[in-house]
Write a structure and sequence with these properties.
The chain is α+β, with helices and mostly antiparallel strands and 258 residues long. Helix content is 29%, strand content 31%. The chain starts with 8 loop residues before the first helix and ends in an 8-residue tail after the last strand.
């Protein structure tokens, strides 16, 4: 008596006789294809008829498999358009002044690979607004760092950081490789308070080229000033983040009445 030779479900997919697949087998193979980005985020799955022919199963089997993946949140159906693989989750940015919550960590938690591309590092003189935020005189000598943050290979945020020469020297070597809050922690620089201002802006033509987006695209803008225990501003930061990629959260600790 001959023994059965095991083989992968992937090889069975196009060869299995009609009715030999359970809907759970079809769902399992579709999960694998989605994880391998054979069906990439945002793309349309083959039609039900095409999946029936691919797996050699009935329409009901395919519908049950798709229903299971919809319930899991992997795919979504759009009447008249078809079934699509869901995009990866939003990047949930928590602003709490904690070095354990860098933007890089939160990009990774959303399922992306994070990296930094340093664009510029320059000396400048404080204008009126910068001087006010950093509690210095107008014309004070400062340094400014610019970078892009990527999620996988997609630019998702543009950052500028403006700071005093002494702090700039401490942080300079890590600007291009380490996210800011992590870098401050590594240098032993403690943040007591994080002052933030939120708004919305449209991309200029120059900014749009950085993101490969049309000019006028709506972006989230966050200005932030970390303060030390004495209330002295450490630096002035500004982030332009893609409004379709980020969800911002701010921790607001309750003050004690005692």
């Amino acid at each position: 008596m001959s023994s059965a030779v095991p083989h992968s479900r992937r090889s069975q997919a196009a060869k299995a006789p009609r009715g030999s697949y359970l809907y759970s087998d079809v769902a399992c193979e579709l999960r694998r294809r989605i994880a391998a980005e054979i069906h990439a985020p945002g793309t349309k799955l083959p039609s039900i008829a095409e999946l029936c022919a691919d797996f050699g199963v009935s329409v009901m089997t395919v519908r049950n498999a798709l229903r299971e993946l919809i319930q899991e949140g992997l795919i979504s159906g759009h009447q008249g358009l078809g079934v699509f693989v869901k995009e990866k989750g939003h990047i949930h940015r928590v602003l709490a002044g904690s070095p354990q919550r860098s933007i890089g960590d939160e990009i990774a938690r959303a399922g992306y690979s994070a990296r930094i591309d340093e664009l510029a590092y320059r000396e400048l003189k404080a204008d009126a607004e910068t001087a006010k935020n950093l509690a210095v005189r107008r014309g004070t000598r400062l340094f400014q760092h610019e970078k892009l943050t990527y999620a996988d290979d997609e630019p998702v945020a543009f950052h500028t950081v403006t700071l005093h020469p002494e702090l700039a020297r401490k942080l300079r070597s890590g600007f291009g490789t380490t996210f800011l809050f992590r870098l401050l922690a590594e240098q032993g620089i403690d943040i007591a308070t994080l002052r933030c201002e939120f708004g919305a802006v449209s991309l200029s033509e120059a900014q749009a080229r950085l993101f490969n987006l049309p000019a006028g695209f709506a972006m989230l803008r966050v200005r932030y000033v970390p303060l030390d225990a004495a209330g002295v501003p450490l630096l002035l930061g500004m982030t332009l983040a893609r409004s379709d990629r980020f969800l911002f959260e701010v921790d607001l600790p309750q003050k004690s009445n005692g």
